[in-house]
Amino acid sequence: MKNAAIAKRYAKALLAVGKDENALDEYATSLNEFAALVAGNPELADALANPIYPLDAREGVMREIVKAAGVSTMMGNFLKLLVQKRRADVLGDIAEMFQNLVDQENNTCQGVVTSATEISADLQAKIQKTLEKITGKRVTVTNKVDASIIGGMIAKVGDLVMDGSIRTQLEDLKESIKGSE
Q1: How many folded domains does the chain comprise?
Q2: In this structure, are 38 and 52 located in the same domain?
Q3: Which stretches in the chain have pLDDT values below 50?
Q4: First to last CA, the chain
Q5: Which of 49, 60, 135, 172 is the most exposed place for a label (fewest CB within 10 A)?
Q6: CB 87 within 8 A of CB 10
Q7: In which region does residue 168 sit, left (phi positive, over 0), alpha (psi from -120 to 50) or beta (all else)?
């Protein structure tokens, strides 16, 4: 995170408002979707953050996107504030920090399971249950497909990484063969 201090300040402010409004999950969802939208569209990111464009033009772009997205009034005001304060370029960091704060608040964490193919709902539920046992928290599991791991899976929850991929096992075997020469 390149702007951690700034992101944390805005995320904490939004967290306080979200608690008052009892809308933490709604705000997290809206903010994550909005951050993904901006990250996926470089032209949009430029239109919102580039100081070459007049402030009223950047605010107009944000106003139209907020209206089209149908986010809550409070979230819309927050997003417009980011443009006014020239912090639209930190939106992704703020969304990540806000999600971390909401997770702490709800005693949850985000987990990513990388596999060579899509995993079934039953297997995902078993993995989720296992990760919850290990972490002692509720875990939201997301499946990411990466054919380069060949087989097996890699589970990441916070700082915890469990790598059972075939690719890693082959690399370890290769290193042990090299070491014994």
Answers
A1: 2
A2: yes
A3: none
A4: 42
A5: 172
A6: yes
A7: alpha
Claim to verify: residue 15 and residue 87 sit in the same structural domain = yes
Answer with the one of 69, 104, 139 that is the final residue of a domain: 104
Strand partners, 153: 115
The CA distance from 131 to 121, in Å, is: 15
User: What is the per-residue DSSP string for 33-71?
Assistant: HHHHHHHH-HHHHHHHH-TTS-HHHHHHHHHHHHHHHT-
On whether the CB atoms of residues 105 and 24 are closer than 8 A, the answer is yes
> Same domain, yes or no, for 174 and 146?
yes
For 76, the domain range is 4-104
Do 72 and 128 have their domain in common?
no
Residues 98 and 152 in one domain: no
Residues 6+ apart with CB under 8 A from 139: 108, 109, 110, 111, 128, 131, 132, 157
CB 35 within 8 A of CB 92: yes
Question: Based on the domain organization, do 124 and 140 belong to the same domain?
Answer: yes
96-132 pLDDT, tens digit per residue, is 999 999 999 999 999 999 999 999 999 999 999 999 9
Classified as helix, coil or strand, 87 is coil
